[in-house]
Write a structure and sequence with these properties.
The complex is a heterodimer of chains A (113) and B (115). By secondary structure, chain A is mainly β. Chain A has no helices and eleven strands. The chains are: A mainly beta (113), B mainly beta (115).
Chain lengths: 113, 115
């Protein structure tokens, strides 16, 4: 069974704080993605990657950094968190061999106060 | 760049009714089109996809979708809905020939099925 695991599942931080969201996939997929989900906006792509060391800029990258350390691990970094980054974050993985189907984690809810 | 729009934010039907959830896209080249379902409090799960061939694709749990190049659409349908189909449905598009495989989602349609 394909698996994507996110941590932490819930996080509260203060404005200006430093947050790292982690994602690990055991699917042996090349592609990994970070999305944020907000009411009225659906899922918006923050950053994505097609392999270790690779990073592609998504549609809403401002205020976010990301790093793909291995094929399995993709991290999303908020170095100076702001209330506008309060959101539900999803990680996903995919591969051409799986017909481009995305496999999602269960989400990480971040609150910035 | 590819974009996708879902014109209906909310759709309410009764159990046993048929339903169509609308999805329109814009992109000039070959594309992957997909539908995903999100139950409350969970991540998204794959329903079905189209890349080429028969424009009507079958998915899990009685869902199907039809690709139309002339209308730039990929609408999702179900002939008879069940209360458990209540969820948020997302349409997604990615460029078929892209090495980077960017996948873009619509804003979602919340389907409410009444008993």
């Amino acid at each position: 069974e394909a698996a994507v695991t996110q941590s932490p599942r819930n996080k509260v931080t203060v404005t200006g704080g430093n947050v790292t969201l982690s994602c690990r996939q055991t699917n042996s997929h090349n592609y990994m993605y970070w999305y944020r989900q907000d009411t009225g906006h659906g899922l918006r792509l923050i950053h994505y990657s097609y392999g270790a060391g690779n990073l592609q800029i998504g549609d809403v990258p401002d205020g976010y950094k990301a790093t793909r350390t291995t094929q399995e691990d993709f991290f999303l970094l908020l170095e100076l968190a702001s209330p506008s980054q309060t959101s539900l974050y999803f990680c996903a993985s995919s591969d051409r061999s799986s017909g481009n189907t995305l496999y999602f984690g269960e989400g990480s809810r971040l609150i910035v106060v | 760049t590819q974009t996708v729009s879902q014109s209906d934010a909310h759709v309410t039907v009764f159990e046993g009714d048929s339903v169509e959830l609308r999805c329109n896209y814009s992109y000039g080249g070959s594309i992957y089109l997909s539908w995903y379902i999100q139950h409350h409090g969970h991540g998204l799960q794959f329903l079905l996809k189209y890349y080429s061939g028969n424009p009507v694709v079958q998915g899990v749990n009685g869902f199907e979708a039809e690709f139309s190049k002339s209308d730039s659409s990929f609408h999702l349908r179900k002939a008879s809905v069940h209360w458990s189909d209540s969820a948020v449905y997302f349409c997604a598009v990615s460029a078929g020939s892209s090495n980077t495989n960017k996948v873009v989602f619509g804003t979602g349609t919340r389907l409410q099925v009444l008993p």
